[in-house]
Amino acid sequence: MLTDLMGGALADADARRLARPLSAVETAAHDRAPALDALAALAPADRIKIIAEIKRSSPSRGSLAEITDPAALAVSYETGGASAISVLTEGRKFHGTLDDLEQVRAAVSLPVLRKDFIGTPYQVFEARAAGADLVLLIVAALNQDTLQTLQDLVRELGMTALVETHSADEVSRALDIGASLVGVNARNLSTFELDQNLFGTLADSIPSGVVRIAESAVKSAADVAHYRAAGADVVLVGEALVTSDPIRTLSEFLAV
Ligand SMILES: O=C(O)c1ccccc1NCC(=O)[C@H](O)[C@H](O)COP(=O)(O)O
């Protein structure tokens, strides 16, 4: 359930804060080289773009791939033509860490997304301190005031928020906070059900000028073509890449 995932992520962030207080993380965030321009990297183009995800495990699918060297996988993604890298940093169910993100940041020159259950400024500062250029904000998990506060902080730190939605109301809430990247996740994060047609039903409500990202349930080039035909500028892909030869799979997906 999304509430459990968010609760666990917030508890883990609180535990980290005991060892590394907010002031130290803020300083580290401000000391980082400026964030890369993710908006430019993901801007609409005459071809589909891909955010390639580092994903070891998931609540819906269990263990997917060992991934002992996330940096090497990220380099494969960059070689294969990905436009950005998503790193799942949640530990309990996805078995990711912020250290994974730091390793990826050091290995590639693409924008890097911190994909996690983010609900506090501390986690946003942590993301920047680890070198993230993008931060995931899940509309379903946040009230509107918190969503706006986190979006403002992400911007102040020079990063870009990928604002994730799963309904027309959530798209509207994402646009209300000025999101420039709106994701539609085919996966219901509470039931884990997948609806590949959801993106198509919501895409028209995302205005041009806002990057449209279709997330989850991409297993084949035909799935990429399906999302592209429905108006996706970008697809975010996890499982299909970590369970295959990523360079070959990216090449097939990018040929759409
Ligand atoms: O993947 C899950 O099971 C999951 C469950 C609950 C919350 C989030 C979850 N995944 C995060 C993602 O949104 C996906 O990792 C991402 O969109 C890639 O999906 P896929 O290509 O289907 O692995």
From TrEMBL:
<dbReference type="InterPro" id="IPR045186">
    <property type="entry name" value="Indole-3-glycerol_P_synth"/>
</dbReference>
<comment type="pathway">
    <text>Amino-acid biosynthesis; L-tryptophan biosynthesis; L-tryptophan from chorismate: step 4/5.</text>
</comment>
<dbReference type="GO" id="GO:0004425">
    <property type="term" value="F:indole-3-glycerol-phosphate synthase activity"/>
</dbReference>
<keyword id="KW-0822">Tryptophan biosynthesis</keyword>
<dbReference type="GO" id="GO:0000162">
    <property type="term" value="P:L-tryptophan biosynthetic process"/>
</dbReference>
<protein>
    <recommendedName>
        <fullName>indole-3-glycerol-phosphate synthase</fullName>
        <ecNumber>4.1.1.48</ecNumber>
    </recommendedName>
</protein>
<keyword id="KW-0456">Lyase</keyword>
<dbReference type="GO" id="GO:0004640">
    <property type="term" value="F:phosphoribosylanthranilate isomerase activity"/>
</dbReference>
<dbReference type="InterPro" id="IPR013785">
    <property type="entry name" value="Aldolase_TIM"/>
</dbReference>
<keyword id="KW-0057">Aromatic amino acid biosynthesis</keyword>
<dbReference type="InterPro" id="IPR001468">
    <property type="entry name" value="Indole-3-GlycerolPSynthase_CS"/>
</dbReference>
<dbReference type="Pfam" id="PF00218">
    <property type="entry name" value="IGPS"/>
</dbReference>
<dbReference type="InterPro" id="IPR011060">
    <property type="entry name" value="RibuloseP-bd_barrel"/>
</dbReference>
<dbReference type="InterPro" id="IPR013798">
    <property type="entry name" value="Indole-3-glycerol_P_synth_dom"/>
</dbReference>
<keyword id="KW-0028">Amino-acid biosynthesis</keyword>
<comment type="similarity">
    <text>Belongs to the TrpC family.</text>
</comment>
<keyword id="KW-0210">Decarboxylase</keyword>
<feature type="domain" description="Indole-3-glycerol phosphate synthase">
    <location>
        <begin position="12"/>
        <end position="245"/>
    </location>
</feature>
